[in-house]
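Quick one, tokens below:
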């Protein structure tokens, strides 16, 4: 945990700060990779993927990576992203703002994006729930549309966060 980070910034990159940024990049990489997987799967659902084949694909996903070992489907993926953003919002964004007051507009934008992405995640969850209740082309299209909207917002957010918070994260003296 990096509570009190405002007293822990060096003038240049530190080994601990680089490790913290590398961990952020690793988590963001998992989010990107698995988002691509669910988008591909959504397109297959839209194209009429048989429910049995969908179940097989979800089972296969359980064994392909650290996130999917814990998060087996789209709904759990959404919970993972929520948890990641909750951690950022409570564990280190307030400290980063205090540590580097020039980051205030960046932190405000990240906070706003977290809210927008939370709404997108809820749209994905609702569309996925509808798909299991109602087998129709409209339900399938809703899943794809919700995931595409999430992907657009989420990928832009991850890039913005990495670019604008990375330099400060890299200067953390110890975690």
């Amino acid at each position: 945990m990096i509570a009190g980070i405002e007293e822990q910034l060096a003038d240049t990159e530190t080994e601990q700060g680089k490790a913290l940024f590398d961990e952020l990049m690793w988590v963001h990489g998992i989010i990107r990779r698995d988002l691509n997987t669910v988008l591909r799967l959504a397109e297959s659902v839209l194209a009429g993927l048989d429910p049995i084949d969908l179940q097989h694909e979800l089972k296969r996903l359980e064994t392909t990576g650290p996130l999917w070992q814990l998060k087996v489907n789209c709904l759990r993926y959404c919970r993972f992203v929520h948890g990641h953003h909750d951690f950022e919002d409570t564990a280190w964004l307030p400290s980063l703002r205090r540590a580097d007051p020039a980051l205030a507009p960046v932190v405000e934008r990240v906070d706003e994006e977290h809210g927008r992405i939370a709404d997108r995640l809820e749209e994905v969850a609702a569309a996925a729930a509808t798909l299991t209740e109602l087998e129709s082309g409209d339900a399938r299209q809703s899943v794809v549309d919700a995931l595409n909207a999430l992907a657009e917002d989420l990928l832009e957010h991850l890039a913005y966060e990495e670019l604008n918070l990375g330099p400060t994260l890299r200067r953390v003296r110890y975690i």
